[in-house]
Design a protein that fits this description.
Blueprint lengths: L2 H9 L5 H15 L2 H8 L2 E2 L5 E2 H6 L3 H12 L5
Antiparallel strand pairs: 1-2
Length: about 80
Amino acid sequence: MSDILELQKLLSPYYSKEEVIYISSLLMSWSGSSDEAVNWLHKPIPAFGHMTAIEGCEKGLSEYIMTYLKQIENGGFA
């Protein structure tokens, strides 16, 4: 399986197809590779009590993760 497909597979239980594409492209543009994008999803996020993005999604916080990503995209602090 290609790395981009792994990234999309990780996100697809929590987001619509359009959101998966948006998040995937956003993370790829920041990280430079799909491997690094996948790694980001598994890194603790201080703003979420050191929960990872995937853990947040598993706990029903996918909308908050999306908002967090949009804020960073718009120049907010991570």
